[in-house]
Every structure is written in structure tokens, then in C-alpha cells.
Design a protein that fits this description.
With 273 residues, this protein is of the alpha/beta class. The chain has nine helices and nine strands. The N terminus is likely disordered.
Length: 273
């Protein structure tokens, strides 16, 4: 069941902020059930918009921080949710926001958001830098982005985003959301994904910067073999005896194999320095 725009708020969605407001009450409740906020938890909502999801979150959460970039929405959101004592609004750009500042007494953050399609990938990379302080993240994203997040080796969608997010998090594709659930309706399908940071990394890399460089180089030329893609990192001599078959393409390697290769590259780089 779709619901009209929030009462008393004449705000129109802005293209420059990538705004598409969620209006389907059934989907809103389904997301809220997936998040299932509990008393004592610190909930963080990115881009509350017209407050459709904020309402059930604020009702259940003891502490709810919302981060909204659009200045025009800020006073309206403050008035609408001031009745909730744990509600705190931050007028800020989530891409530049210090999420560590929201941690209370070591409590992990639970992050929720209908992320603008135009910044979803860089924002996810920004958020996983706080993975050690996060319990879980639930995001509404373009379906194609969720496909990339959840992709496994051999999938066409498998790439840099898949490897680096799965290095830090367990990824679960929860359900799809049709365009008609929004106002205005986007031209693409959306989906809800849950990211749960690993309490202990299953495949920790010796040097995360080397892993990032490797994954970027490997998928930057995904049609080429790893041997060709690695020429920017290693000499032909340094490539001899690597623990992964360099005649393969990047999309064939698992996260664990990327880490194994990254560690070997790091050792060779240190020997050559």
C-alpha cells in the first residue's frame, strides 16, 4: 500500500541529491522488520528524506541519529521527530561524515539508508572503513549495485566492489523493491542488502593497501589475464612463481585467492625495495 508524502511537507525530490522518496508502506514495514531495532542500540539512518523509514525506526530505537544533506528538509524533520528523546539530526554530507563520532560507550552502530544511486559505491567504501565499529548495515540500493555486492567468482557482476566489500563483510541480498514504491519512480529496480562486518577477518591481508591496488588493477582491465593486469605492479621476473595462476582473469579469483596473491606481491615488493 502506497502512502502520500508526509503531512505538512511540500518538499519535492531533488535530482542533484539523487532523491527518490519511499512511499510504499508495505516495503517500509518490511525494511523495518529486517532491521529490527532494539532498545539500547545505536541506529544511524542516512538520508531520511521525508521520514518514511525514520518513523518506525524512531519508535523502536532508544537512540537514532539521522544524517541529511538537504538543508530544506532539516527543520521539518526536527519538528516531526522532536517528540522522540533519542532523535538526533546531523545536517551533513554522509561521504564526509565521521561515523566514529556517533559511537556511545563502545556500542556498535547499526546503519540504515536509502542511498542515492549517484554516490552509493563511494559511500559504501567510506562506511566499510568504520567496519570495526559497525554491527550491521541495511541499504536500499540500485539492484545492479546489490548484484555486484553479492556476486561470486565467475559472475559477470563480480568485481572490485564485490571483493573489497566481501573482504570486510558478509553480504545478504534480502529482497527487491519495484520503481513504483518511490516518488518520483526511478527508472531502475532497487533492492535491500544487509552487510554484516566480520568480527574477525576470515582472510586478513598482510597489507590492505597492496590488496586494494591489486584488486583495482585486476578489474581495471578485466578482459585481460592477471599477468597482463599486474604489469603495473610487478616486473616479469617478480611474477614468476606466484601462488595463483596468472593466466586466469580477475573474475575467476575468490576473495581468499586475492588475499593470497596480494600477500605474495607484497613480499616481492618489499624484497625489491
Amino acid at each position: 500500500m502506497k502512502q502520500p508524502a508526509a503531512p505538512g511537507n511540500p518538499h519535492r525530490a531533488r535530482k542533484r541529491f539523487g532523491q527518490n522518496f519511499l512511499i510504499d508502506h508495505g516495503i517500509i514495514q518490511q525494511i523495518a522488520r529486517s532491521v529490527s531495532p532494539k532498545a539500547g542500540q545505536v541506529i544511524v539512518e542516512i538520508g531520511p528524506g521525508q521520514g518514511a523509514l525514520t518513523e518506525p525506526l524512531a519508535a523502536a530505537a532508544e537512540t537514532l541519529h539521522v544524517i541529511e544533506l538537504d538543508r530544506d528538509l532539516v527543520p521539518w524533520l526536527k519538528v516531526r521527530f522532536e517528540k522522540h528523546p533519542g532523535f538526533q539530526l546531523h545536517q551533513a554530507d554522509a561521504l564526509k561524515f565521521d561515523f566514529a563520532s556517533l559511537s556511545e560507550n563502545g556500542k556498535p552502530l547499526r546503519i540504515v539508508g536509502n542511498l542515492p544511486y549517484n554516490i552509493s559505491t563511494p559511500l559504501i567504501f567510506h562506511l566499510i572503513s568504520y567496519a570495526s565499529q559497525v554491527q550491521d548495515m541495511h541499504f536500499m540500493l540500485q539492484k545492479e549495485v546489490v548484484k555486484r555486492l553479492a556476486a561470486t567468482p565467475g559472475d559477470k557482476a563480480y568485481g572490485r566492489l564485490s571483493v573489497m566489500v566481501q573482504y570486510y563483510c558478509d553480504v545478504a541480498w534480502l529482497f527487491d523493491v519495484p520503481p513504483g514504491s518511490f516518488d518520483p519512480a526511478p527508472k531502475v529496480d532497487s533492492a535491500i542488502v544487509r552487510l554484516v562486518p566480520h568480527k574477525a577477518l576470515p582472510h586478513p591481508a598482510q597489507n590492505i593497501e597492496t590488496l586494494e591496488k591489486l584488486v583495482t588493477a585486476a578489474f581495471g582491465q578485466r578482459r585481460k589475464t592477471l599477468r597482463n593486469a599486474l604489469k603495473s605492479l610487478l616486473s616479469a621476473e617478480q611474477m614468476e612463481g606466484l601462488p595463483v595462476d596468472t593466466s586466469l582473469r580477475a573474475e575467476a579469483l575468490s576473495v581468499a585467492e586475492f588475499v593470497t596473491l596480494s600477500d605474495a606481491i607484497d613480499e616481492r615488493l618489499q624484497q625489491g625495495s
